[in-house]
Amino acid sequence: MTNALSELLSTRDWLLADGATGTTLFNMGLQSGDAPEFWNFDHVDRITALYKGAVDAGSDIFLTNTFGGNASRLKLHGGEKQVHEINKAGAEIAREVADKSGRKVVVAGSVGPTGDIMVPMGSLTFESAVEMFHEQAEGLKAGGADVCWVETISAAEEFKAAAAAFALADMPWCGTMSFDTAGRTMMGLTSAELVKLVGKLPNAPLAFGANCGVGSSDLLRTVLGFQAAGPEQPVIAKGNAGIPKYVDGHIHYDGTPELMADYACLARDSGATIIGGCCGTTPEHLRAMREALETRPKGPAPTLDAIAAALGGFSSESDGTDGGGPTRAPRRGRRRS
Length: 337
Known about the structure:
Helix content: 40-55%
Low-confidence stretches: 330-337
Strand order of the largest sheet: 1-10-7-6-5-4-3-2
Shape: globular
Radius of gyration: 18 Å
Largest sheet: 8 strands, parallel
Distance between the termini: 43 Å
Order of helices and strands: HEHHHEHHEHEHEHEHEEEHEHH
Number of strands: 10
Mean pLDDT: 94
Number of helices: 13
């Protein structure tokens, strides 16, 4: 099936994704505990600015403001009956921004985790997860999203449920997990196990990978783990802009645009095709990443030592692909902050 993302992937060696949604919206006035998805109705101008910031900085793909737009999460704010409308609105604003950009820009409908734990550890059944993701996907489709993009997933069954839901909606999709627990997801999956999981899905994603997590060093180790397992699909890397620190009452990520430019090129050299940022990544970071990817020649896959030297040390000795347990790594300094 031909779509906007597959067309771009067929003509480019790398694509630049977007940066942080939450960080940008907090800077615009979003308060902790508020649901940003309601801004798709209440502050269309700010959501437009969010999207336009990524596009103007050079992003080829940007995500909609719908990360928490499923019934389970919206129920916390009394919005569980507005799933379709909220997702449709978020995608419609994005579609308008992309269409006015003057180039091919992919609108990716952001789908976050349900926030519930899958059975048998929790109460969320596979069928319920599929239903929630399907409802969200239909709203994104109605609003004009090119692809669905499930992200920050930790459980294999929830990833499978999203894949099944996108098949019901007849939507192409991408998916990323967060490897934030000693190189594994919170539910214990390693990078190699995600490659195996993706390879068995009846409705395979156009691309898959990792987002968020602990830091950019850990994320690139995960990308190298994907490549070692021989994936068939392009790999996504969306790492945080450094490490979060509490400064003057706000969370600030210490990664500079220069650091994220280095990260972007290392991600490309590690085997990622779709490269973006997650928490803390601003348009300023994205511009530096784009310039670096366009001007610096591709190099060989970096060693772990080279990654640590450029971006800082790892949070654990092992990412689990070598059978090692969750042993914390010794502290190492960041090259620049």
